[in-house]
Amino acid sequence: MKKVILTIAVSIFLIAANEVKSFGQATQQQVDGLNQSNDNTIQLFNGENLDGWYTFLKDRGRDKDPKNVFTVTDGMIRISGEEWGCITTLDEYENYKLEIEFKWGELSFEPRLDNARDCGVLLHSQGEDGGSSGTWIHSIECQMIEGGTGDFIVVGDGSDQFQITSTVAMEKQGNSFVFQPGGHLETINAGRINWFARDPEWKDKLGFRGKNDIEKKLGEWNTLVCIAEGDQITIFLNGVLVNKATKVKPSKGRIQIQSESAEVYFRKVELTPLSQKNEEANWTNLLDNELSHWDNYLSYRYPEGYKGEVPKDKDGNVLAPIGVNQDHYDVFTVIEENNEPVLKISGEIYGCVSTIEEYANYHLRLKVKWGDKKWHPRKALLKDSGVLYHSIGPHGAEGWRSWMLSQEFQVMEGHFGDFWNQANSAIDIRAYIPEYIMNPVADKSQAFLAMGAGEKIPGYCMRSANFEKPHGEWNTLELICFENKSIHIVNGEVVMILRNSRYVEDGEIIPMIKGKIQLQSEASEVFYKNIEIRNLESLPDEYAQYYE
After folding, report:
1. Over the range 65-97, which residues count as b (16 or more CB within 10 Å of their CB) and which as e?
2. What's the pLDDT score for residue 326?
3. Would you state the pLDDT for residue 34?
4. Do residues 382 and 412 touch, judged by C-beta distance below 8 A?
5. Contact call for residues 342 and 334 (beta carbons, < 8 A)
6. Bridge-partner residues for 355, per DSSP?
7. Is residue 423 over pLDDT 70?
8. Domain boundary at 277, 299, 314, which?
9. Among 277, 307, 332, which residue terminates a domain?
């Protein structure tokens, strides 16, 4: 059999597989530990009958099973597979750990008599029986198929009401994405995302086994665990994390187990509710009509042709900046759009709004879009703003005398997610320099390069790619900050990986891991809304691997 190649070489694949296996085992142990004290576990299968379930068969309907496709024998659910359909829970569920023990039987039936044994657990099922192909309720499927157990399939209606997002490899297997921790994000509302080590030479053939299959041999028991928590689903097969989806829609519903031409047995179907975790309740809204979480600062109204000189009056005296909370020019105002507060920054005068509080170890998310106006000295240049984080010290510390010492998540036309150092800050970024006279470009596959104060490379790096939406549309920006690490995310795409945030003062290198957040006014009209922040107790798993 040919060697499995998921990316470029077998060695790379095996390293990735081992890393995911170790991570999967550790994560499942953590969940098991949390649930050991949980006495609310629900036995969805009681070992005797199908109480709590109803049957559905294509072309027959509900609870009409003359051929005994679904039976209980010797303490096991037997699904013969002779007709297509499912058993479906009477109740809906959300936020749970579902643990199933299954093994394949010997029998198979048309139309898949000689094809790989096939079944599936359909989660978050919503809608009518038979809504999909006359057989199943629309849902998110954890696939059970020889060689492909742990795949995700969206059994949806083609709308965004049934969809998942996952980190995937650059190369597809046929028309299917392949789960890869640390890969790029893809969202699907149809089709599948294969488990991380699915054999690229997979054949829909009875008895198929891939070289790196985690599923056990025919007739042996497998443990399949699906953890549905909030809008995430994580799949473990025999103790190994094999697939994970985020931004799952819907996030609750009934559970179906399929009959699909293959005999299969289940001896455990057990559901443990997880402590209700209302993720949205953990977010703090930073934008209200009074801008009560923010101060504002204005420096100067810079003229056309300004080149960085200290502003002076006609007699040569140095001019003081406008200052803190002296916005008599309505540079920063809150307007309403669709009954939501929106921060309008006119851009007419350089400056910022800065949070009153300092923050460390957080996830910041917000939406931003451009207005139409531009001002001197950037009338002929790209529209510009920015999110400045770990901001400390006085305003006006950098060359434009407008902002605090900080790290910048750039907001510029075509350059959402670029990095700029402000004043004497520095940081390391996964990036490369295309040629010695060019700017560094972020690339999460590259080594970290030191940039900024005290380093050979100046404090600017371009994002990995442009994911900005067309003018007038809202863009979603996310900033992950944990300890000395930060991640820039634009419209769901990771565009920069950073670490070792610091600043230099009198030759001393000082860690820079906490501070205020600033939103820039920089000669361009710009709008911000849905500005929210939440505390992080650890770096999320989906991002931690960027630092391995």
Report:
1. beeebbebeeebbbbbbbbbbbbbbeeebbbbb
2. 97
3. 41
4. yes
5. yes
6. 294
7. yes
8. 277
9. 277
Distance CA 420, CA 63 (A): 64
* Average confidence (pLDDT) over 195-222: 96
Give the position of tokens 């559970």.
255
Angstrom distance (rounded) from CA 354 to CA 168: 36
| Burial class of residue 39 (count of CB atoms within 10 Å of its CB; 0-12, 13-18, 19+) | exposed
Q: Are residues 222 and 338 in the same domain?
A: no
pLDDT digits (tens, 9 = 90+) for 387-417: 999 999 999 999 899 999 999 999 999 999 9
The answer to whether residues 173 and 193 touch, using CB atoms and an 8 Å cutoff, is: no
Q: What's the domain count of the chain? A: 2
DSSP state for residue 277 in the 8-state scheme: -
Enter the tokens of residue 78: 């037997």
- Residues 85, 110, single domain; the answer is yes
Strands of the sheet with 191-194, listed across from one edge: 61-62, 53-57, 85-89, 254-259, 118-125, 139-145, 152-155, 191-194, 177-178
- Alpha-carbon separation of residue 381 from 77, 188, 375 (angstroms): 68, 37, 10
Judge whether 2 lies within some domain.
no
The residues that bridge with 441 in the sheet, in sequence order, are: 432, 462
pTM for the full predicted model: 0.57
Same domain, residue pair 170 and 253: yes
Residue 118: domain span: 10-277
